[in-house]
Amino acid sequence: MLSKKKKIFILVGMVALLVVTGCLNIFLNNKSTKANAAGGEVTYGNFFTTYRTDRQTTRDQTILYLDTIINNEASTTEAVRDAEAQKLALTKNMDLELVLEGLIKALGFEDAIVTATTESVNIIIKSDELTEAEVAQVLDIIVTETDKTANDVRIIPVE
Predict the structure, then answer these.
(1) How crowded is the C-beta side of 16, counted as CA atoms within 13 Å?
(2) 126-134: long-range contacts (C-beta < 8 A, 24 or more apart)?
(3) Which residues contact residue 137 at a Cβ distance below 8 angstroms, ignoring those fewer than 6 apart?
(4) Taking the CA atoms of the chain, what radius of gyration do you get in angstroms?
(5) Residues 99-139 pLDDT 10s
(6) pLDDT surpassing 70 at residue 35
């Protein structure tokens, strides 16, 4: 077992990382806002990058919270078990989304974002518009790689 001092050091380190992440997020958002206020329009390339950054920041914070619960001696066995299950589900979801995004890009699309939940899968594709054949290809990937049906999938083209 870790000594009490080591646990405190680890917890303080995690909190410090959380604070740094929050500061960076604020700094980058302010920088983006200033650039947009200077006459620049938000481009969809920026949308995809910003979305991925925000998603990763949120996931990092969630994993940090779950790790804190898992490593805290005061946590009940049930709380630790739930936190471990949530962390496992989150990592599986992250892997699934990465695989789906790669497969969709392999179809020739410039960029794509996939968000998968227990109920549905949403896909945002960088494209002016999608043909029926392209929608069918994307839908085939999602239905093949997940347990979702076509009714559970939402495909959104973004110019």
Answers:
(1) 6
(2) 126/44, 126/45, 126/48, 126/158, 127/157, 127/158, 127/159, 128/157, 128/159, 129/157, 130/155, 130/157, 134/107
(3) 107
(4) 20
(5) 999 999 999 999 999 999 888 999 999 988 899 999 999 99
(6) no
Write out pLDDT tens, residues 6-32: 777 787 778 777 777 877 778 777 766
Q: What domains sit in the chain, N to C, each tagged with a CATH number?
A: 4-158 (1.10.287.4300)
Q: Check if the beta carbon of residue 109 is closer than 8 Å to that of residue 100.
A: no
Contacts of 141 (CB under 8 A, 6+ apart): 100, 103, 104, 107
Please say whether the beta carbons of 68 and 83 come within 8 A.
no
**Calpha distance 6→25 (Å, rounded):** 29
The structure tokens listed for 111 are: 């960029």
Q: 112 and 44 in contact (C-beta within 8 Å)?
A: no
Phi first, then psi: give them for residue 147, nearest 5 degrees.
-95, 15
pTM of the model: 0.68
